[in-house]
Please model this.
Amino acid sequence: MTQTVITVGLVQMTSGKAVQPNLRAAEAAIKRCVEQGATTVLLPEMFVCLGVKNQVEIAQTQCQKGGPVRSQLSALAKDFKVNIIAGSMPLMSSVEDKVLAACLVFAADGSEVCQYDKVHLFDVDVSDNKGRYRESDTFIAGTQSKTVSLDGTLYGLSVCYDLRFPELYQQYQKQSCQVVTVPSAFTYTTGQKHWLTLLKARAIETQSFVMAANQVGTHEDGRITWGQSIVINPDGEIVGELDSEKAGELVVELDLELCQKIRQSMPLLKHKRL
Ligand SMILES: O=C(O)CNC(=O)[C@H](CS)NC(=O)CCC(=O)C(=O)O
Model:
């Protein structure tokens, strides 16, 4: 049945390099979200392993189909009867020694229902303690937008640096997505400057809810991420947010009728000329 008000959860965590402790932290956080009524939970980018060099090995031995990560997430979804939009994890690609940054979606019956591969790779110099980010050294870019319907709500999927490329979200607007998801590991430096503004812009432009779950704090590889996981409504207002200091969960209600109301009173899609 299609619901007009849904309850969603976002997980903000400080992922380290080892897979199992990260998975256990994600599991505990998902459980807390479900206890607060969430029926769909979003995990951040690379919740499974952040800042590692052996992504290929992790993809092959832990994130492969039927492997420990995907079986555990599937079991979690089924046991807690919750949809899980699993931020991202490294998955094998058709290119040797390169992995995809994949956002897998698990429905509440435990089935894997969608895979979105991060399209824009973060090959950027940032004035922070790390300085140089070259995601394409280990990752290969996806090429397609992806939507997924969960309990009758249509979600448009993206990951982190994708947020800076509005044309991806314009596709989700054209497909009438009600929610777009942005699991992230935004740096502290760029997050402080750009995170909120970009997320608000995407919500206002697409007239949909934006759910953004971010990594937070100082990670094992020394990098610092921004936190401030947040939900913004189609009118650009903040529905709820976490702080930029510590791990936690955010559970909020989304009134999906607001998408329709806003789209009716200001029909951006109809007014598009280019
Ligand atoms: O590499 C990993 O282990 C996890 N992946 C990430 O941290 C990714 C790629 S380096 N980070 C971003 O895309 C940050 C984007 C950002 O901060 C911005 O757009 O300003």
